[in-house]
Amino acid sequence: MSPFRFSRFFLILSCLFLAGVGQAFAFKTVIIDPGHGGRDLGAADSYVYEKHINLDVSRRLERALREAGFKTVMTRSRDEFIALSERSAHANRYRNAVFVSVHFNSAYRTAALGIETFYRSSQSEKFARLVQTELIKNVGATDRGVKTGNFSVLRRTKHPSILVEGGFISNKNERSAMLDPQYRQVVADSIARGIIQFNRRIF
Ligand SMILES: [Zn+2]
User: Fold this and answer.
1) I need a surface site. Which of 37, 91, 121, 134 has the fewest CB within 10 A?
2) How far is the CA of 24 from the centre of ligand 1 (A)?
3) 22 lies in a domain?
């Protein structure tokens, strides 16, 4: 093989490699998982229930992503109980997808506040960082950072997957903020922006 042919061979090989790697992260579908539902209320304080906030933010996220050209799948679209194993089984039926679970937090210490994003696999770390950065930038909440979490939906879902905790229901200020539809819209839009950025990345 001549040196020219040899370098051309490597050029083609590296292009194929990049295309392959790029493809692994270029997704068309976003699976949105509104946490809890039905008899599982999630966090609750002063008649504010996490399951309702999760579903509302998820619906807003669904709308934003569809407008951006993504296909979306909801693990629940109404107030019903869905087992955790069912959520990930549902998610794993799709290909070229990412998974985002939407939650709001609670703590015994009512002063606890802020937003945090969890991931489990190394392929999801970048995804978590992009979403967390958008959330902190746009919501203006305290940055609790990106963390690894051993959540069932993150463990069992095959796709790049994250779990967002969009504020504390147990904190008086954050609880009243999330009762404002504007706040929930900003949270949803920020998650959408992070997802769009993750889709554009070539690793
Ligand atoms: Zn939750």
Assistant:
1) 121
2) 29
3) no
Domain count, the chain: 1
Give the number of C-alpha atoms closer than 13 A to the C-alpha of residue 97, restricted to the C-beta side: 21
Q: DSSP readout, 137-185?
A: HHH---EEEEEE---HHHHH--S-EEEEEEEETTSHHHHHHHTSHHHHH
Q: Judge whether residue 92 has pLDDT over 90.
A: yes
Tokens of 131: 């979403």
Strands 29-34 and 71-74: parallel
Ligand 1 centroid, distance to 10 Cα (angstroms) = 49
- Residue 3 CA, ligand 1 centroid: distance in Å: 59
Domain containing 142: what range? 30-200
Mean residue pLDDT of the chain comes to: 91
User: For the whole model, what pTM was predicted?
Assistant: 0.87
Cα separation values, 180 from 118, 170, 198, Å: 25, 16, 28
**120 within a domain of the structure (yes/no):** yes
Separation CA 87–CA 85 (nearest Å):
5
Query: Ligand 1: distance of its center to the CA of 105 in Å?
Result: 6
The rounded Å distance from CA 5 to ligand 1 centre is: 57
Q: What are phi and psi of 150, to 5 degrees?
A: -95, 55
92 belongs to a structural domain: yes
